[in-house]
Amino acid sequence: MNLKGKSLLTLLDYKPEEIQYLINLAKRLKEEKIQGIHHRYLEGKNIVLLFQKDSTRTRCAFEVGSTDLGMQTTYLGPTGSQMGKKESVKDTARVLGKMYDAIEFRGYRQSDVEALAKYSGVPVYNGLTDEFHPTQILADFLTIQENFGYLKGIKFAYYGDARNNMGNSLMIGCAKMGMHFKAVAPKELWPTQELIDTCNLIAQTTGATLTFEEDPMKGAKDSDVIYTDVWVSMGEPKEVWAKRIAELYPYQITKKIMNQAYKTAIFMHCLPAFHSLDTEVGKQAALDFGKDYPSLANGELEVTDEVIESNQSVVFEEAGNRMHTIKAVILASLTDDF
Ligand code: CP
Ligand code: NVA
């Protein structure tokens, strides 16, 4: 498999065997890391990390991952660079492409990450846009493979905002890998018909199925994986909260919902998750909405503390897998030996 020079902007651009290859490469890098085997295959190469939005996992996964591979890293945060203020994305791309071997971008517009890839001449990795979050899906699928041994045929239920970057990307990933994807959400939050049509075409070639369910109890029935994400994504206006809570409260992942799934089911979340009063958002939600929505008074939003802290929850393994999968993406795109 040769992915040298290839950007990762959305999984739509990847074949199922390429996705499987990256997951298996990540598994190998993870085993090497655990055994203390160094893999500084990219010594002398440089990567720049452009972040317009906050991050814990993605930034750290790129920083530690690229350092493990022997690279030098530059972080450019939401302030401090000229991009988007005094300089266009197109010009920034051409400048960075002269200095770096690879670029990571987290921001708002998918068109920006596409422009970076088009004009920089080096591989560009999408570390999250409003539309897609492809590196997260690779970590999620490595985690599923570790838990079940396979991906094809997995029954996957995604709860919450199914038209955000996670809903879109998980639907694409499931379609590519022959999994059974179910979006469990009110109809207004299902993915766009255009993306559903695209994914259905892919599904016809892989054996995947896509279904859409409004009933939160029925949605979990016979699932291997119950997955959810925050109800309001980065970059959405504050005013969305009240509407989203009203729409999604019945879709909160509780023990009752988990009990509808198979006994062997796992709970997943890309994180960050709101399940306690230990965050500003949790506290604010408790103050503003706790009276009308009882569990919000404890800061529990999209998932209860009981579920995320249960034995079925794999969220921290999943978070750790961000680094191994991101390393695989960088390595595969910068060498032809792997
Ligand atoms: N899951 C994820 O992308 O987390 P961060 O926002 O912390 O990077
Ligand atoms: N949908 C979330 C994902 C965070 C990793 C967001 O965009 O904020």
TrEMBL record:
Main location: cytoplasm
One GO MF term attached to the UniProt entry: amino acid binding
Protein name from the UniProt record: Ornithine carbamoyltransferase
Species in which this protein is naturally found: Mariniplasma anaerobium
Localization per record: Cytoplasm
Enzyme kind, highest EC tier: transferase
Residue ranges annotated for the Aspartate/ornithine carbamoyltransferase Asp/Orn-binding domain, each copy included: 152-331
E.C. number: 2.1.3.3
Classification via SUPFAM superfamilies: Aspartate/ornithine carbamoyltransferase
